[in-house]
Structures are given as structure tokens and as C-alpha cells.
Amino acid sequence: MLAFVATPLARLRPSDATRWLVRRRRAIGVAFGASMTIHVGCIARLYGLYAPERPPMVTDADFFVGVPGLVLVALMTITSFMVVRRRMAPALWHRLHRTGLWVVWAIFFLCLVDSVGRKETDHPVTAYYAFIAVLLTGMTLRIAAARAGERPIARVAET
Known about the structure:
The protein is an all-alpha fold and about 160 residues long. The chain has one domain (about 1-145). The protein has helices at about 1-10, 15-25, 25-50, 60-80, 80-85, 90-120, 125-145. The longest helix has 29 residues, at about 90-120.
């Protein structure tokens, strides 16, 4: 979410903190990609524990929406490394990352909404609703920044 809202926050409320966030959004995105790699490892272990059956808490939506999302996150993570990014056409890189941000956002949102209706938990507020609220807040910030116009933010050096 920090990488998702870094630029909109810097446009809406320029400050040292938001500029710091923009300068580090690539590292934040790569850290997210690394966390998703760990997530994939945990899912693989879960499948191993329940083999040959599918784990009962994994829905069709989790599988058919989540897998393409994980592939997209992997592509975005790999192309965030400068050695790979330099070999890509800038328009292709921007299209992948701009589209990828929204697709990953939508996947998280849809999976959480699906989970509310299909999965049982003793703590739905902390398990689902709080995360849905965070996602909606991030979307609201991006829309507000777009409506405010493309106010330029100070260029930051790529690290």
C-alpha cells in the first residue's frame, strides 16, 4: 500500500516525508514482491500438508485470481531492478507497473470481499474489514490525486 500511495500522497501533501516515500517506493515494491515470494512458499507448504487434496481454506477465487496476481507481482518485482528496467522500453515498463498496481489492488480487494462471504473467522474486522478499509483509502488517495491534476512533484534520483 505504501508503494501504491507514495506518488498520490506526494502530489496531495508535498512534504519531506512524502518525498522520502516516493524516493523509496521501488524498494518498498521490491520488499512487497519478496513478501509475496514467502507467501507462495507458505501456500506451497499448505498444499503439501493437505496433499493430495486442496487445502479447505483455499477457494477457487483464491486460486484462479491469486495465481495470475502473483505472476504479475513477480513481473513487476523483476522489472523493478534497474538492470532489467534499462532493457525495457520505457512505455512498456510504465504500462506494466501502472496497470499492475491497479490489478494487484483489485485482486486483493476481490479476494478479501470473497473471503468475507465464504470463509469463517472469529475476527472478521481484523481479518478482512480493516484491510478492505485500507485498500479503499488507498484507492481514494489515488483518485483524489488524479482529480487534483498532474501537479508535478520534485524529481527524485533513482536509487
